Amino acid sequence: MKNTAIEAFCDRGIVFSLCALIFVLPASIALLDSFAALAIVFYFFKKINRIVIDWHLRTAPLSPSGKIHFIWKGLSPPVNVLNRPLQFLSLAIFISVLFSQYPGLSLLAFIGKFLKVVFLYFSFMEAFRDERRIRIFIYFLLASAFITALNGMFQHYKGQDFIKGHLLSADRVNASFFTANGFGAYLLPVIGLVAHSLFTAIARNKSWILGGILTLLLGLLLCCLCWTYSRSSWIGYLVMLFVMVLLDRHKALLAGLLLLIFIFVFLPSLNEVRNLNLINDNSSGVRIKNESLLNSITPDLGDVGSGRHDYWKQAVSIIRTSPIYGTGLNTYSRIIRRDLSKKTWWYAHNCYLQMAAETGLVGLVCFLWMLFVLLRHGFNYCNQIKDSWSLTFLQGSVASLVGFLVQSLFDNTFYTVQLGVLMWLIFGLTVALTRLNPTTR
Questions:
Q1: pTM, 2 dp
Q2: What residues does each domain of the chain span?
């Protein structure tokens, strides 16, 4: 009974830490890291306590190697669908650290960044095992997003956000994030969850108060996404709408309405504020006439993506120098700055190319395998779950995750502290929602 009480205390500590983390995530990296460390401490305390309690009873007949195996099993994360892909990904990244051109930087990033987010995911799996706790986490996420969106609106109209004092730059809202692109990427998962919740509230004829609150929140989030003028986030948003319909054709009307808002509000504002197409840069600076979605998505490699074509070419050149194991985790900015004669940037503006450059094609393949397993698992459960609440948030989580991953094709999303942690917590939320409904066909 004492052991059970300690485990329950640790689980509550993890829940508190991760809910606090997701709440402060947009505003403070220092607080984010503090709550992340607290959650991981509770996670290991629970594991070690279980090993200590069972040690004399379970290890008496075991050999030394058997005792080591017992400790290893005791520290292992809870069984879940991503365990095997994560093992291979961790091994691939560790090998990239061993062969790194800057071993110190790579080892520091492996311990301080990669292992941190992995154990945050494991902590989520350990503690969020029932609907009540998952609901609490989602409420904290939505409350934080609401405050952050209000902050973005304040910045848009007043020229400065009220959390960190960021000034409005080039008419693009970034709220408490460092860049408008980062703010746009943060908004995608929240918009996905709110849009699916709104559909369920309307379809099931729930309280009009709930429907009104969700409508206002969605409208506020969409305004902020528009004001970021983040084309990478907008592309992720379009993909998210497509996946919404793919998961449930009954949501076609809502997705169509959100698409019309994009066509008739987002695109004209992009033309008016930045004189840009969705894909092309329009470097002439002349306002585009008769703007249409078709014209916006027609690529011109000579004038596309704010220099991303050149950044991607540089990333590919780095990949060619060390295609198997990469140059080492967290080394991209050091490698790219070696050639001072070229116009460079610290990031590749494509997370997958940068991952291939740092951890090699082996690391990229392992990561893509993990994403494939996760999304296939999520899509399969979306076709099997009957519970309305679980299905709503699972569909929102899967659709927004796809949009988030597509946005990462055009930015350094994985490599920012806040968004990297957010991504792994959405991984955890997706898997946790499937575990609420373990029966499969």
A1: 0.92
A2: 1-76, 77-435
